[in-house]
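Lab channel / #folding
Pinned by the channel admin:
"Please post every new chain as: sequence first, then the structure tokens as a reply. Keep commentary short and put observations after the output so the thread stays searchable."

First post following the new format, from NK:
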Amino acid sequence: MDGISKLSSLSGLLKSPEGLKADKESFKKTLLGFMDQVNELQNRADRSIEKLISGEAKDLHQVMIAAEEATISFQLMVELRNKILEAYHEVMRIQV
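Reply from TO:
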């Protein structure tokens, strides 16, 4: 009887195809949002560098901070991509 109660508690973890599709869309939306943020940081760094070159910006520290933020966020995005690909390859190696 105890095993049956454990199985019934696990049934909440099983998702319908609609639930899986919603999770897939949520994951996709999250990744696209992250990529947009990285792109915005890259654009902001480019604009601050252009302002420094043209003489509009006088604070080199702010330009360097913007450039480092863009670099670190891009490196994080690349590492996330690598981990996702690694997980995909691991799933593909699973023998059924």
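NK: The mean pLDDT is 84.
TO: also worth noting, The chain has one domain: 17-93.
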